[in-house]
């Protein structure tokens, strides 16, 4: 079988962990499998590199940041190849440029466009275990890009899709996908199976166990995906296409603390204003999430919305630069917010789910700042300090009680 095995930062954090993982890889290799191993940077390396950059220049260009951040993954792959060689198996490490993982030029959030397979195939044919850097790509100018935080999952799934792998195993520090983040919700349950769609929603709404774009790709190319622990032999969670019959009312609860709210106050209440705000932000690649517009009063209105916390300063700067054109009186912002969401394929056909969610929050005395709904999810914005309590209350209401 051709298997892609991806190991996250905690799984390769130190020499002992590297050998733990290397032994797993050797076991699989000795069974006759062809292996592509995708690695993240060790432990908190990526965060530490970001801190280093901030010490030098907090406004560093994204190109240079990518040049720096990509070094974390490069360390991991070289160390892993060394460990595998020490265990007596042939291995070779490759970075994105060497194996040809071509991406767009959007530094810090690049998308994989294509993967050249020649080098990888050649190494596999030579019986090598191929150890590849996650999280990075190379653009058409030969510049190194990164795929966004958590992007190593996407590297792994993209490789599995392109090479038509039989299986893509994502090894992490939890033993599968749970009904909510097990570090926040103690009663969270491990799921043996989850559908691509529900997983995609959970990941997009903040469940960082899988990078959302990895799930998108897995669905598109029907990749056999499993999430499991690098420290135990427990069966993990299979992520696959699920039939409508199996759809649960609520599959999971996601918490995203990396959000910020912006309110643009006293805008003119006339056509074209929302278009102006959001097109300026989009042009600058700032994604906007929940949007709320107040009812107009005295010919003015307020528009508030959420962005990823990392985009807050950029968004404020852009809005400030366009103050004249947009004609607002002031901008408020709040970083102490979090988004709590419920996700479930069965929600579309069930009335009263939203009301039950709001009741759970009301019973906990938690104030809702914004609401957004779709066919398969409901999100609320709450104070960050209330987020864990909110997740637990909502989880209790929908999932724990349905055991
Ligand atoms: P890795 O470094 O292996 O990529 P991550 O830290 O990116 O690992 O993702 C694993 C983490 O995701 C877990 O430690 C857990 O806290 C968090 N998580 C959030 N939501 C979920 C969920 N629904 N199921 C499992 N883990 C979750
Ligand atoms: N090292 C990168 C990060 O910390 C990518 C990853 O771990 O998936 O975000
Ligand atoms: Mg991750």
What does this structure look like?
- A hairpin with a 7-residue loop joins strand 11 and strand 12.
- The chain has helices spanning 15-30, 45-56, 62-86, 96-99, 118-125, 152-162, 196-204, 212-221, 273-283, 312-321, 323-326, 353-363, 387-398; strands at residues 2-7, 34-39, 91-94, 101-103, 112-115, 129-133, 136-138, 144-146, 167-172, 193-195, 225-229, 237-240, 252-268, 288-293, 300-308, 330-343, 370-374, 377-383.
- Helix 1 (15-30) crosses helix 3 (62-86) and helix 12 packs across helix 13.
- The longest helix is centred in the N-terminal third of the chain and has 25 residues, at 62-86.
- The protein is globular and about 75 Å long.
- By secondary structure, it is of the alpha/beta class.
- It has an 8-stranded mixed beta sheet, with helices on both faces. A 6-stranded antiparallel beta sheet has the order 14-15-13-16-18-17. It has a two-stranded antiparallel sheet with strand order 4-5.
- It has a domain at 2-173: Carbamate kinase (3-Layer(aba) Sandwich), CATH 3.40.1160.
- It is built from 13 helices and 18 strands.
- Adenosine-5'-diphosphate (ADP) binds at residues 8-11, 40, 150, 172-174, 177-178, 180-183, 202, 207-209, 252.
